[in-house]
Amino acid sequence: MSDKKEGLLETVKTVVYALLIAGVFRTLFFQPFWIPSSSMKDTLLVGDFLFVNKMAYGYSKYSCPFGICPIDGRILSSDPERGDVVVFRHPTQGRDFIKRLIGLPGDKVQVQNGVVFINGEEAVQVPDGLFVETYEKQGPQGGYPACANAPVAEGGECIKEKFLETLPGGVTHSVLNIRDTSVDNTGVYTVPEGQYFFMGDNRDNSADSRIERPIGVGFVPAEYLLGRADRIVFSSAGRSLLYFWTWRADRFFKAIE
User: Fold this and answer.
1) Alpha helix segments (H runs only) across 1-105
2) For the Peptidase S26 domain, which residue ranges apply (predicted)?
3) Is 0.70 surpassed by the pTM of this model?
């Protein structure tokens, strides 16, 4: 074999090995995730880039790309905790979602006047000022943010009320309020065994477990959990992660609360 052919073969082998290593790393340890929507503001902004800790809850068939892992149920599993920010596979849409875990198996969850109650205990909300952003297209999808002070002209200030919510168990995080919606007052959701109840922190702009599938998320079985989001790596305010001049310097390696 000529030196040229040997060199080409070695290059191909190197690329194949690199792809295999990357595939194993993504399957077992950390999966990259880019925030495409506003449902988790202001905890997560459109354009935040993070790695999902796939070791946190163990593994199911959905831990592999395209759901091809030959796993029945979950292995090496650990239970998620209330307040975790979790990436999961939508049970019917086949897309990955990111929301906050509110209800554990057996919990009774209800929303009254925009306030969450879990097993009858109020998740107390304390006013925390305003969340202000520019009314402009965001991310590659080019969507505009929803504003409590609508209508807002292009380039104007888009304002939402902000609260600090403390869940039973002590996790405190930020939530936003835009307006009164149909899911600000709900019936009681009883979370089935082996399933979980999720909500977005941007409460009035989130399709989550308050809404049944296929439009919403409904209850999410444990096998669809992919991992926990712990830290933002970097964040881009532009239409692409490659537009480094739009990166948000204050969000580099920011912990997710």
Assistant:
1) 3-28
2) 9-233
3) yes
